[in-house]
Design a protein that fits this description.
By secondary structure, the chain is of the alpha+beta class. The protein is built from 8 helices and 6 strands; from the N terminus they run H-H-E-H-H-H-E-E-E-H-E-H-E-H. The strands form 2 sheets. It has a 4-stranded antiparallel beta sheet with strand order 1-2-6-5. Helix 2 (about 25-35) crosses helix 6 (about 125-140). The longest helix has 22 residues, at about 55-75. It starts with a helix and ends in a 5-residue tail after the last helix.
């Protein structure tokens, strides 16, 4: 119950304080995420932590280019209607405002020393669990996050010079919320709507 109370206070944030967060804190958040279970214990994830201002600026520019295409034709009317209460648009200043960007990559396969491709298993499931732990660890550390998914995200592979076996999975700004930051009043489903018991 105590853990539920902690996590029920978590909210996605789009307005970040410029206050710096020590890299050591972010590293410990990533260390906690890396305790996640994974298919055949392959641990098919890479967490790229970006604090460099110029690189964050370039990530923002590339993300906004994709988002403008999304909001101006790629997204269905239904999708745009669902997003409307959140007040989102193609402008993503949080990608520069947040002191850190954590870019989660999924490792589709591993390349062995002799060049053989070794498959990873249940990659999406494994990386999803690790990302959930990342968000929980960040919240526990008093940090705010946002799960951002500009689509497509291939620009992250290029900007961060990642190998061909990695695919971008999520882009997560991380830091302290801005003073006076407001978030939508969202209602989470009650337990009886998500729990089915067979006693």
């Amino acid at each position: 119950m105590e853990f539920h109370r902690l996590m029920d206070a978590r909210r996605s944030v789009r307005h970040f304080s410029p206050e710096q967060v020590p890299f050591a804190v972010i590293a410990e958040v990533v260390r906690a995420a890396s305790t996640a279970p994974s298919g055949a214990h392959k641990q098919p994830w890479t967490f790229c932590v970006v604090g460099n201002a110029d690189l964050k600026r370039r990530i923002r520019a590339a993300a906004e280019e994709e988002e403008r295409a999304n909001y101006n034709g790629r997204m269905s009317d239904e999708w745009l209607k669902d997003l409307a209460p959140l007040g989102t648009d193609a402008d993503k200043p949080f990608l520069e405002d947040a002191p850190w960007l954590v870019v989660v990559f999924k490792r589709v396969y591993e390349v062995e020393p002799e060049g053989h491709k070794h498959q990873n298993y249940y990659v999406n499931e494994s990386v999803g669990i690790a990302t959930g732990l990342l968000l929980a660890a960040a919240h526990h550390a008093g940090l705010a996050t946002l799960t951002h998914t500009p689509s497509p995200m291939n620009f992250l592979t290029n900007l961060l010079d990642r190998p061909v076996n990695e695919r971008p999975y999520l882009l997560i700004p991380m830091g302290y919320p801005a003073p006076g930051c407001l978030v939508p009043r969202l209602r989470r489903k009650p337990l009886e709507d998500v729990l089915v018991s067979f006693l």
